[in-house]
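Design request, tokens follow.
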């Protein structure tokens, strides 16, 4: 494939106000630049998508494979066939988004600015292979983090038992 403008690969779409769709027992996440904001009974988009902040947190892309709703401060992307959404997510993590900031106060991005960025895309097959390798690393990191948290809890419990005399070492 090669160097292409992002806009030739995906379309940046605007999120919408969530007030009419928000529900305490909703099925679909409502997402903003800071993450989960609530749930809705309707979704705005139901295909794999890369989300990027329009206002506020513009440098922390998010990835969704399941249906979702985004608020107006968070863009979502409609990705063309033969492009891997997960690969684009990882690619977006490598872009220095703050260098494209268009505001002096709250950081802001424009859809056209995003679409005009030129990046390199390998073939669809290679995109999928790259995304799988990175995803597998992420899974291993999460597993290691989970084990670390478990060990920290065990250590804390053992310290409490030893230091209070509930357990004696002989």
């Amino acid at each position: 494939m090669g160097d292409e403008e992002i806009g030739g690969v995906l379309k940046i779409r605007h999120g919408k106000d969530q007030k009419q769709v928000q529900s305490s027992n909703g099925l679909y996440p409502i997402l903003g630049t800071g993450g989960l904001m609530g749930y809705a009974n309707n979704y705005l988009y139901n295909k794999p998508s890369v989300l990027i902040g329009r206002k506020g947190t513009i440098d922390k892309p998010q990835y969704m494979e399941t249906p979702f709703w985004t608020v107006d401060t968070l863009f979502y992307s409609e990705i063309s066939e033969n492009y891997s959404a997960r690969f684009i997510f990882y690619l977006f993590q490598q872009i220095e988004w703050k260098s494209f900031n268009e505001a002096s106060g709250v950081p802001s991005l424009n859809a056209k600015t995003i679409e005009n960025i030129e990046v390199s895309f390998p073939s669809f097959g290679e995109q999928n292979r790259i995304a799988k390798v990175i995803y597998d690393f992420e899974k291993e990191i999460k597993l290691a983090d989970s084990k670390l948290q478990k060990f920290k809890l065990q250590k804390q419990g053992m310290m409490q038992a030893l230091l209070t005399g509930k357990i004696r070492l002989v």
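Comment from the thread starter after seeing the answer: thanks! The chain has three helices and nine strands.
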